[in-house]
């Protein structure tokens, strides 16, 4: 079995002073622009992006973390956390889709660093993706949602 | 800006005849096993895996698809679909966590090919990830949930 694979960046995240603070712009590269066709039929989308600032050996060797942004969180395994330092620095967020214009997706609520590369977009389908009664430990109830 | 990045596989999905059909086993490689610490505090997890059977130039050039498993679906952009053929063949599923034993995660409801490489695991946090009222087009209501 191979031990890895290659990602192609399909776009880049831009935060702009001309936009409200909660709004981000995902600039999808021209060759992938047709991939956005009918995405506007969805109110929410899943954004997969690359945590490029953590793409180095030290951050990618992390296996245990203390989620300090969540008050009272214990030490946990990296896969039990949303830590940005992880073996594959994949960022993931479910956000509100505002509009699409000229290969740019405008979304609300994406808390990612400027210039983060976009690696995938998928539609959010509540029937498949919504589990309001899922159990999570108490420390996830405080602090940021991610 | 770089145009790509490298993924490391952190485990592999195994379906086994000794398990019920709806149950899959995620074998996490030894060096990442500590990353599972306290994951059992969550009832549901997000599994990110690699659609290794689609990792070739033809499948990764797909920008428009017809989601045929969903009756009546129109042609849509690949990012408005859950198509397995996409620029980065990242599989994503939210599944029920059954138990963890010896670096193996047992989950229910993961519809992925045997031997798919695992690339990330994140906890499912309903406060951040559940949007039961999200809008999606009618074709997503029939057919498989993914």
Fold and architecture overview:
The structure is a homodimer of 146-residue chains. With 146 residues, chain A is mainly beta. The first copy, chain A, has a single domain (11-125), classed as Beta Barrel (Elongation Factor Tu (Ef-tu), domain 3), CATH 2.40.30.70. Helices cover 5% and strands 34% of the residues of chain A. Chain A contains two helices and nine strands; from the N terminus they run ββββαβββββα. Chain A has helices at 57-60, 126-129; strands at residues 4-8, 11-14, 23-28, 44-50, 64-65, 76-77, 90-101, 104-108, 117-123. In chain A, the strands form two sheets. A six-stranded antiparallel β-barrel of chain A has the order 2-3-8-7-4-9. The relative contact order of chain A is 0.29. Chains A and B meet through strand 1, strand 4, strand 6, strand 7 and strand 9 of A and strand 1, strand 4, strand 6, strand 7 and strand 9 of B. Strand 1 (4-8) of chain A pairs antiparallel with strand 1 of chain B.
Quick summary of this structure?
The structure is a homodimer of 146-residue chains. Chain A is mostly beta strands.
Keywords, separated by commas or semicolons:
homodimer, 146 residues, mainly beta, Elongation Factor Tu (Ef-tu), domain 3, six-stranded antiparallel β-barrel, two-stranded antiparallel ribbon, 34% strand, globular
């Amino acid at each position: 079995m191979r031990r890895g694979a290659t990602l192609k960046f399909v776009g880049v995240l831009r935060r702009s002073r001309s936009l409200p603070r909660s709004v981000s712009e995902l600039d999808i590269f021209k060759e992938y622009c047709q991939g956005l066709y009918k995405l506007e039929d969805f109110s929410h989308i899943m954004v997969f992006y690359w945590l490029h600032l953590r793409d180095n050996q030290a951050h990618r060797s992390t296996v245990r973390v203390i989620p300090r942004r969540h008050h009272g969180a214990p030490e946990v395994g990296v896969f039990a956390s949303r830590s940005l330092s992880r073996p594959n620095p994949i960022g993931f967020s479910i956000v509100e889709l505002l509009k699409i214009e000229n290969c740019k997706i405008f979304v609300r609520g994406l808390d990612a660093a400027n210039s983060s590369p976009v690696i995938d977009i998928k539609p959010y389908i509540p029937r498949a993706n919504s589990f309001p009664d899922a159990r999570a430990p108490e420390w996830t109830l405080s602090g940021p949602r991610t």
